[in-house]
Design goal:
- It comes from Microvirga tunisiensis.
- This is Lipoprotein.
- The chain is an alpha+beta fold.
- It has one helix at about 1-15; strands spanning about 55-60, 65, 70-75, 80, 90, 95-100, 105, 115.
- It has a domain at about 55-115.
- The chain is about 10% helix and about 20% strand.
- It has a 6-stranded antiparallel β-sheet, with no helix packed on it. It has a two-stranded antiparallel sheet with strand order 4-5.
- The protein is rod-shaped and about 90 Å long.
- The N and C termini lie far apart (about 80 Å).
Amino acid sequence: MRVPAIVLMGLVLSGCVSSREPLSPPVPPANLGSTQAAPPVPPAPLPTGLPPGYTRHITYREGKFTLPDGSTVPAASNGGFTISTGAYIPTDGAGGIILPNGARCFSDSARGYFCP
């Protein structure tokens, strides 16, 4: 009686041992836009006359804005853009943009913006 139980236990446990087959490669995530940071852009000098605290810079190059966190988003034809949360950042009609929190960013005179 012990021999069949030992054989049965051996068969059950052999199913728990991992096979020697190579694992399939990981599946890349769905395309959610550019996930690669754009090459670093040298920081622009802060213009005089900006209010204190306006140290974040959104730069523009080749139809895309590079945000302070390094992510890139395509520019809309009117100068605004949509961020990763889905919020649209509109222009304010005076050369700046309005952030979702209500803060206003000022133009850097190169299609980019200085933000608080």
